[in-house]
Amino acid sequence: MLFTFNSYRKLLETILERGYSIYGIETILEKKADGKATEGQYVAIRHDVDYFPARAVRMAEIENQLDLKVTYYIRRRFFDDNIELIQKIKSLGHQIGYHYEEIDTHQKAPNMQISRDAAGFFIGSLLDLDKLGFPIRTVCAHGNPLTDVDNRQVVHLIRDESFLDRLAFTYDKETIRQKISENLIGDASIDITGKDFDLYLPDTGRFNPRFNLKDRIDDCPLIGMSSLAALNKILDNDNNRRIYMNMHPDRWSGNPLVWLFDFGFDSFKNIVKLMMGSRSYTGKMVGDKAHKHHQAVLKSIGEKGAREEEKKKEKKARSEGEATG
User: How far is Cα 78 from Cα 51, in angstroms, rounded to an integer?
Assistant: First the structure.
């Protein structure tokens, strides 16, 4: 039975017994950033910690016992409220990344400032987490199936230097550039594609692609799994030498009652997703609302820049007139 801590241990042991190496997705991104390919057959694992960081600690302990180091993407609120749990995961040798959701968080920002607010909060969070002792090197988007936006938009924005140049930050711009261009090596939901992996196997929808609205990797085949026996069949296929897995700790537990509750709650969510279908998310990089906001932001920034430039010219003209007068 899947989604118990015991079955998770068995899942990892099965992968190792079949001759696959297991890496954190950050390791793959590091090599890719250096222009290197990861050799051999392997499974890359990431954990998106959405709700229960204590469960993430338990999974991290299992991995540590098997001498594995993988990547945990943590939402900002857990760094604020459960930092000791995140420190525990890090102490077990695992990689800590930032699980961002700024577009969702700021999509109701006043005056159509979603892009500016999201970019500012994202950058501020990265710099704050560095100071807390978590030097973030990779990030990964959180996907909310109930909204029509794609949180990955914020990373595309901050990678656009012309966009950053038009924003006003309380942080030193050189510090920001260094963080983004040098210290931040990749995004696990953007910088990985079907060229890097043969399969993407997430536990979203309880390993059922039918209920997966947003957890995708561009151009990478998405596959489901109903049992550990199904995993063996996947590993039997010689074409599946590079497998990317995403497992959310909030779906895995060690308590039968908790498992039943999770099963019921996930089943309810899956029904809602089925009813929503593609209407909730078109697969575009930016949802309709976010796209509208984004265009308005760029326009307002351009207009503001033009006004400021006009004021500078007027001020310069006055100064020159006073000097000659």
Answer: 9
Taking only the tens place, the pLDDT of each residue in 295-322 is: 655 565 566 556 666 777 777 777 766 6
What is the CATH T-level fold of the domain 5-290, as seen in this structure? TIM Barrel (3.20.20)
In the predicted structure, residue 204 carries a pLDDT above the cut 70 = yes
Show the CA angle centred on residue 92, arms to residues 71 and 55, nearest 5°.
70
Bridge partners of residue 243, in order along the sequence: 43, 199
Distance CA 321, CA 122 (A): 45
What's the pLDDT tens digit per position in 257-267? 999 999 998 88
CA distances from 193 to 39, 200, 282 (A): 17, 10, 19
Question: What global pTM score does this model have?
Answer: 0.85
d(CA 261, CA 175): 46
Q: What is the DSSP string of 129-181?
A: HHHTT----EEEE---TTSS--TTHHHHHHT-HHHHHT---SS-HHHHHHIII
List, in sequence order, every residue forming a beta bridge with 21; answer none if it has no partner.
Answer: 42
Rg of the chain over Cα atoms, rounded to whole angstroms, equals: 22
Name residues whose C-beta falls within 8 Å of residue 46's C-beta, 6 or more positions apart in sequence: 24, 25, 70, 71, 72, 73, 97, 140, 188, 244, 245, 246, 247
Task: Taking the CA atoms of 136, 140, 143 and 149 in sequence, report the sign of the dihedral they define.
Answer: positive
Three-class SS of residue 26? helix
Sequence-ordered alpha helix ranges (H) in the chain: 5-17, 25-33, 53-65, 76-81, 83-91, 102-106, 114-131, 153-158, 161-165, 173-178, 204-207, 228-236, 256-276, 288-324
Q: Are 255 and 55 in contact (CB under 8 A)?
A: no
- CA 266 vs CA 8, 69, 104, 105, 246: distances in Å: 18, 28, 21, 23, 16
